[in-house]
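Our collaborator T.R. sent over the components below with a one-line note: 'Predict the complex.' Nothing else. No constraints on interfaces, no templates requested, no preferences about which chain binds where. So this is a plain run: every listed entity goes in together, and whatever single assembly comes back becomes the starting point for the next discussion.
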Amino acid sequence: MPDIPKPRANRQRTQTLRGPVPAAEGRQPRGARRKRETRARLLDAALKLMAERGMDSVAINDITEAADVGFGSFYNHFGSKEGIFAALVEWVFEEFADTLDQLARELSDPAEIVAVSVRHTLMRARREPVWGRLLIREGFSVHALGWGLGQRLLRDSQRGISAKRFVVPDHLMCVVSVTGIIFAAIAAELHFALSVAPPVRRQKASGVGGQNFAERVAAVVLQVLGLKRAEAERIAHLPLPTSRSETRVCRAKSRSC
Amino acid sequence: MPDIPKPRANRQRTQTLRGPVPAAEGRQPRGARRKRETRARLLDAALKLMAERGMDSVAINDITEAADVGFGSFYNHFGSKEGIFAALVEWVFEEFADTLDQLARELSDPAEIVAVSVRHTLMRARREPVWGRLLIREGFSVHALGWGLGQRLLRDSQRGISAKRFVVPDHLMCVVSVTGIIFAAIAAELHFALSVAPPVRRQKASGVGGQNFAERVAAVVLQVLGLKRAEAERIAHLPLPTSRSETRVCRAKSRSC
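Returned assembly:
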């Protein structure tokens, strides 16, 4: 498959969104620690604002105000608004793609790889709604297929088609359908539970926000890729592999993962 | 199906986005004509800005500047920013839903109704990209299932399930999948053709922007609803019904439809 853009090789990342992960945080000089905290505040503020409004509608001043950081300090950390946006894109679309590669490293069935990726994406969006909001806001953009997650989807779907595991009329419709279903499912978790539509609201226990929502989305994605329903359901409910690197990143961020 | 929100009854609309359609434009008083032109300029400007950035990131001043209209004049036409946004939503999500109902009025097969709706939605987004951009921007919002297009999708999918024409695991996943595929397909037409991903770009002739793209999207949607591929393809390629009202609206807007 010579035409699929090559995903970047897995790297042992030394940075998370919040900056270098110190080996022993307590021993860091005070200045370095404060600098890291300021960077984290700027990134958190930019994430919330850009997930809500998109990059173009957010000014540097909005970010520094929300982060409670002086305007000039911004430039100690980022060269421009595009710079901080690039850091967020790196985090949402590249770093997470590496996490998925880690999680799927011992799997060989393309269907299982896609199912695991879909479930982890949905679970992460539920855990970190602002991350999910930025993903669906920017995921339809001009550049999204060139970023890590898009490239990974192109690669995995092509692998499944080449191995005759996926049977789809064409690659393009496959990518369009899978992307759309995942984003709509994330939007459903973010929004539809509040919707005025009673059939959706009443399905909450077993539907949006329910325990098995990610698995049901994965099953539909596999059916779109040509698997029979029973097989899709079975694969979508297999035990999830876990990743040491994901655990490490979560701990470094001091967030409940 | 008592729980599906009832779509509003078809109405003989006397207004389009641009205001009342005069029986004989030349005979309108100059003042009334100018007022209508100003309203149309404000709506066109708001549509472009809100499709790009969302309602919250657009100020009334941005709209009047882009429309080249005095700030105070805005209030001769709309009570607030929310007012002009509501007029746009009415146009994108309600008026178009009525157009689809008109187009499908002589069809009885739920699969054919869905296919015609999907194809017309894709064709309109291609013809009027800013309309398409507002649709996919607001279509994932909290309120979208309560608006005309969302209610219509809930109604039509429920009808197909009740008639056993659609076979889906559940109604929620059906709505999520169909919505996602349509929006991703519109985004593909708006953006992906410019993407860095070679497989998608090279498929342009028969893919994104190709003559049969809307039909291929409709076929995938029908497959997601449980139809076999051959049947889905057949229905997706049936001749399209045309609507007198759509022709009239297009002519009134003086746009090439």
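Summary for T.R.: Residues 89-252 of chain A form a domain with the Tetracycline Repressor; domain 2 fold (CATH 1.10.357.10).
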